[in-house]
Amino acid sequence: MAKFGFIHDKLDIKLLVLYLMDRVAAPIDFSTLTDLSMCDSGVDYFQFAEAVSELVDSGHITQDGEFYAVTGKGRRACAAGESSLSSVIRSRCDHRLAPLNQALKRKAQVRAELRPQPLGYDVCLAMDDDQGSLFSLTLLAPSQEDGQRIADQFLQHPDRIYNGILGVLLSQQEKE
Questions:
Q1: Whole-angstrom Cα distance, residue 162 to residue 176?
Q2: Could you tell me the pTM of the whole model?
Q3: Element (H, E) at 12
Q4: Gyration radius (Cα) of the chain, Å
Q5: Tens digits of residue pLDDT in 65-120
Q6: Dihedral through CA 96, CA 101, CA 104, CA 110, nearest 10?
Q7: Quick check: 20 and 69 in contact, CB under 8 A?
């Protein structure tokens, strides 16, 4: 059966996986890697799954729980072989990676954590930018449910919360 597309065999699939893993901003799960890799009609799911397993066994990528990340060995192999991937495939990969990397970067820069305390839960909120920490705040919530609601709101709207606090702190008080 003839394969159409730019990917023709397991070696092409391995190079594709290494190319993607080398450019993703953080470790990703198998499902996400699968979605990214299915960018060409020549990618066979079963060969893909086998290729990922072989890359883990050979030390080109690591698996930590359900997440995969590229190793130094994988980066070197990618650099040596990526030119054999079609420029069309590399472009498709880059296009697919852009929104994912943006989301992964945002997730890494905005964090919320609940820590049990004797009187409730500490809700630790933090936001970074490329230069470092922008904001960190710890609030005491009376219950885990309230703490989780605070954390979820912060994760959904960190910029609004940050700007709101700055607005209050930097506003001029009305003189009586």
A1: 28
A2: 0.73
A3: helix 10-23
A4: 22
A5: 999 999 999 999 999 998 999 999 999 999 999 999 998 988 889 999 999 999 99
A6: -140
A7: no
Q: Tell me which residue of 39, 29, 48, 34 sits closest to 6, measured CA to CA.
A: 39
Q: How far, in whole angstroms, is CA 38 from its chain's centroid?
A: 18
Show the CA angle centred on residue 47, arms to residues 99 and 23, nearest 5°: 30
Residues 6 or more apart whose Cβ sits within 8 Å of residue 174: none
Helix (H, G, I), strand (E, B) or coil at 91: helix
Bridge partners, residue 117, by sequence: 120
122 and 140 Cβ atoms separated by less than 8 Å: yes
* Structure tokens belonging to residue 116: 């049990």
Distance CA 35, CA 15 (A): 16
Give the DSSP letter string of 151-167. HHHHHH-HHHHHHHHHH
User: pLDDT value at position 176?
Assistant: 47
Structure tokens at 81: 């072989």
> What's 3's DSSP letter?
P
Collect contacts of 54-61 with beta carbons under 8 A, ≥24 apart. Answer: 54/10, 54/14, 55/14, 55/17, 55/18, 60/14, 60/18, 61/17, 61/18, 61/21
Q: How far apart are the first and last CA of the chain?
A: 85
